[in-house]
## 1
Amino acid sequence: MILNKPYPTYRYIILAVFMLITISTQIQWLTHASVVRPAEVFYQGQYSQTSFINIDFLAMVYMLVFLVMSFPALAAGLSSLAQYLGIIIAMLVTPMFIGSNPDLANYGDGFKQMLWIYGIISLITAVLALVFIKERPQNAVIEQTERFSYFKGLKHLLSRRDMLISIMLFLIGLGIFNAISSMTDAIAEQAGVKDSDGLIGGLMLIGGIIGAIIIPSLSDKYRKRKPFLTLCMFGMIPGVFGLAFPEYLSSDLNTIYTITLISSFILGFLIMSAGSIGFQYAAEVSFPAHESSSQGILLWVGQLTGIIFVAGMSINDNQYLGSYMAAFAILSIVIFIAVLFIRESPMILAEQNK
């Protein structure tokens, strides 16, 4: 039961600051993801393309820090909308600052200006957080429902069959999303795109925002979780296959690029919808463990596999990118089969039995 106190208007300031922090964080994560090839020109001589420490390693650093910093607290994560907005800015706005057309003389220019702008944005959001976020706001709403302690809750959720399947879904699904998000320019190059325009990542995130509004809303309206998770996992398959094998559908470069863009939109629309529903489903099947514990561990495993996937895809100047994309296609089928074995949310079943 929740104490019946009015929420203070100050909470909206906190929410706005958290959203700004999230947007800034996502921009920092994927700053170079959509402009890797021009970045190689800008950073020429500072690293080896065949080394593990390359441009794509910058995206892995974010995921690595997430693993180290989030696991002890199992932070629930910030607003999904702010995450999507931050990634869209990184994917679509970044190429506007950079000379990304290899046929023009300014190819590779603009990084200093872009990094300064993003750095200033990050500094401002950090200052806002220090000023406005308080340790214990007055009139805070206090939850009275009894919950497990952290370690008891962790043990509980790891003993739940449906939670373990959910972890598998995020281990693979979120890992694939993080890897593709980090390697969008390399995927564009594989599709024969000369200009680093960021459209692959941008459309994936735009599709994600639309999907995350529509499908979870339908899930809530019809009080069903499993059918919509199953739909998302099934729809993810053509999205991944379209990104992995567009050249088998056409030999024309423009058509291949169009297939890639459509596939990225489909993938974003469904995989992000699955994420929103999956977080809610995990909280329901693992109750009375804290929601922050269930959501945190799902995010944690997705970052872990994201690091592994990006590391493998970027080795030796993306030598194994195609192999990993083919593996993702197979794994998308695996998680579709896995989602068939989950059961409907026990909370929803309890509501229906009343």
Note: The chain is about 70% helix and 0% strand.
## 2
Amino acid sequence: MKTKRRHDWATLHQRTFGTDVLRCSCGDRRRIHTVHATRAAAEARLVEFPEASRVGRRVRGSRKRRMVSAMHPLATAGPAFARLESLGLTDDASWTRLARWFDGQVPPGPLHDERVQWLCVPIARWLEHRLTLQRRRPVMLGLNAPQGAGKTTLAGLLTRLCGEVLGVRAVALSIDDFYLTRAEQLALAARYAGNPVLEHRGYPGTHDVALGERVLTALREGRAVDLPRYDKSMHGGRGDRSAEVTPCTGAVDVVIVEGWMLGFTPVERVDDPQLVVPNELLQAYEAWHRHLDAMVSLELLEPTHVVAWRIEAERAMRAAGRPGLSDAEVADYVARFLPAYRTWSPTLRTGRWQGEARFTLVLDGRRVPVG
């Protein structure tokens, strides 16, 4: 009997899917509310609907909801359910089909079911909806999420889902792969000596925007293109562009672009003097944003969660035998980004993706949606 390997959520993308799968697969109503953190507590919410069965009968009462089959009663407790219901995207068959697939992909743990029912399935249903709305191919989808939130893992899951369940061809790429080469980054740091946020990769200005524009244009036009790859383990964890590329040939139906600052736009006033130059350099990224038809945004209740998540990811890299930053180096590195989240994250809410073109979830420190 074969035993299926299981890994924790933070390292799933490194140890299960593999780099090539992540790079190319050929085959608000906004509200913050208190959610029940455990499955038992969430199931308790169904007590008010005693007549609701496990096979999806319509609930009678002051709040009428079609119960998603009871593969899992957590579904209706999720923060995105009301919005999806208003779009007609909570039918039992579609939800259950996706939940069953994700159930076998998301690693087990105390929050496995919440991640499936509140994060993965809602985003997948919304993606399906975008595919039906948009005749032009490919659908270019942005995925904005803080460092360590699991955006690369989620992008990989959605790419596989497209091929295995939705029957469309998808490719996923990260803005990290458009970072400047190590030599270019050192030159940038020297040009702005004394500015710590431009000393290392990450901030606006540390990407090769022209390279990203060429790749996105080729994907939009259905032309063959080599997807660059960035190796964060090089130079003692400081990283460099890899000599390896991932070829992508032929037209695709879905392009998923993920990044921590994807979709951010310049603000009129910057209080932190270290952010003045990056704020100016951020304007150039409009060359990427104009390609994106829609945006998934995973926000944080508290930006400081990023530090712990990034430390977790670097530890996983070191445990896998790859060079990574020490905990102290990670804490210093990520702390430099906290002002950026406070300055530019709000621009996503007022940017080009509004209404049905944006899907927003708010995550707590456990990477579970709470709004």
Note: The CA atoms of residues 22 and 156 lie 5 Å apart.
